[in-house]
Amino acid sequence: MKNIFIIDDDIHIGNMLEEVLAREGYGISRAYSGTEALLALSSAKPDLVLLDLMLPGLNGEEVLPKLKGIPVIVVSAKVDVDDKVALLLGGAADYVSKPFHTEELLARIQVQLRNAPQKENASKLAFDDLVLDMDAHMVTVGSKEIRLTRTEYAILKLMMQNPNQVATKSFLLDNISEDTPDCTDSSLKMHISNLRKKLREATGKDYIEAVWGIGFKLRAE
């Protein structure tokens, strides 16, 4: 059973979400403030978080950066494009505006849970048909190895570790420097282009999609 954590101080919306999600077979836990949410998350990690922004104590924007390694769907009445872009850049996997249709929210939840990596063991990451072995420093699809440069491997590894996050240029450059100090601001686009081409040639799928004006994101097909 997949577990979903609802962080929303609106009791009526929370009750509605809990009823709908429980009917779909999800396990549910809830918090009514940002502080309560972080306390609960220190002892248990859900499969997905539904996060409201207008929370007592710590608000949603303050909670979001602390939710590492968990897909977060922001559910908020804020509809300004700049707000949505800032939240996506800040680590949100998706954004649903209130009021919303439950069918749309359920579909978005299913997409995020489907795209979450399944770790075969502590040293491997998996996304769709791709498997990245961190011990062997190797990427495979089925029994076929995809030969990548050091920088291409570092980019793919980071994206597979954060499969639900849009990877901006600054995010990539800041986080791959330990694995590949050779990558620069001017060469990053070339490395991503080469990586996309190798994955497409090996699998017939375009695993990396450009998010216009923001960055890049993994896509399962």
Q: How would you portray this structure in words?
A:
- By secondary structure, the protein is of the alpha/beta class.
- The chain folds into 2 domains: 3-115, Response regulator (Rossmann fold); 124-218, Arc Repressor Mutant, subunit A.
- The protein is 38% helix and 21% strand.
- It contains 8 helices and 11 strands.
- It has helices at 11-23, 34-41, 60-63, 81-89, 102-115, 150-161, 169-176, 188-203, and strands at residues 3-7, 27-31, 48-51, 72-76, 94-97, 124-127, 130-133, 138-141, 144-146, 208-211, 215-218.
- Strands 2-1-3-4-5 form a 5-stranded parallel sheet, with helices on both faces.
- β6 and β7 form a beta hairpin.
- α6 (150-161) crosses α8 (188-203).
- The radius of gyration is 18 Å and the shape is globular.
What's the structural blueprint in terms of helices and strands?
Layout: E1 3-7, H1 11-23, E2 27-31, H2 34-41, E3 48-51, H3 60-63, E4 72-76, H4 81-89, E5 94-97, H5 102-115, E6 124-127, E7 130-133, E8 138-141, E9 144-146, H6 150-161, H7 169-176, H8 188-203, E10 208-211, E11 215-218
Parallel strand pairs: 1-2, 1-3, 3-4, 4-5
Antiparallel strand pairs: 6-7, 7-8, 8-9, 10-11
Helix pairs in contact: 6-8
